[in-house]
Amino acid sequence: MTVSEGTRLLIVGPQGSGKGTQGVRIAQAFGVPAISTGDVFRAAVAAGSELGNQVKAIIEGGDLVSDELTSAVVRDRLSQPDAQGGFLLDGYPRNINQVSHLDEFLEGRDESLDAVIELTVPRDESIARLSLRAKEQGRTDDTEAVIANRLAIYERETAPILGVYRARGIVDAVDGVGSLDEIAARIVAALEARGLGRSAAA
Ligand code: ADP
Question: Residue range 175-197: average pLDDT?
């Protein structure tokens, strides 16, 4: 066996922590789809779909989409065939209420998260990276005021979900400063130390 079957992961970190980039890499390494709610919403906006029209103004202001709508979107995505053998969630759950929604959904499938990767990055570094991304990609939610709003929401609403998962013993805190390769290697090492991942064959 080269890749563990059925690995269910969540990556959490402040905006600018690089969780999107690392999430995609780790998902590839584990052979599971990376599911980013931010990407799903941005794609919907770009496509001008009904979902996109519902969330456009909210995303552009850096506010959160309602828990009901977000959870419905995630349930739908997790019900697709490619997510039956595991997945990596990025950007969801983002508050305690969404944790309950996800728990309920996974329990109904007799599943649970195997590990939560907490990517830690100092606030100054996050802000510097976001400002750079704003210049490079022109994301409409990367202006200074909107960045400040998103970071405040992260600290107030998202950071507390880590306490819930810590109490379950499934959080691995990983230093998010370094090269992309170094950080990916740290994450893989943390997951392997839990018996997840690629070293199972040996
Ligand atoms: P970032 O983490 O840099 O804010 P994301 O790509 O994760 O960017 O999300 C972009 C936007 O999509 C958020 O600001 C929010 O409006 C919306 N969004 C993403 N995930 C969620 C979620 N779980 N609940 C509510 N809104 C969300």
Answer: 95
Q: Which residues line ligand 1 (CB under 6 A)?
A: 15, 37-38, 41, 58-59, 62-65, 70, 91-92, 94, 98, 141, 150
Burial class (CB in 10 A: 0-12, 13-18, 19+), 107: exposed
Q: For residue 17, tell me if it sits in a domain.
A: yes
Domain that holds residue 76: 6-193
Q: Which candidate, 82, 47, 100, 40, places its Cα nearest to that of 65? A: 40
Count other C-beta atoms under 10 Å from residue 94's C-beta. Answer: 20
Residue 151: inside a domain: yes
Domain count of the fold of the chain: 1
Say what the pTM is. 0.90
CA 64 to ligand 1 center in whole angstroms: 6
Where does the pLDDT of residue 139 fall: very low under 50, low under 70, confident under 90, or very high at 90 and above?
Answer: confident
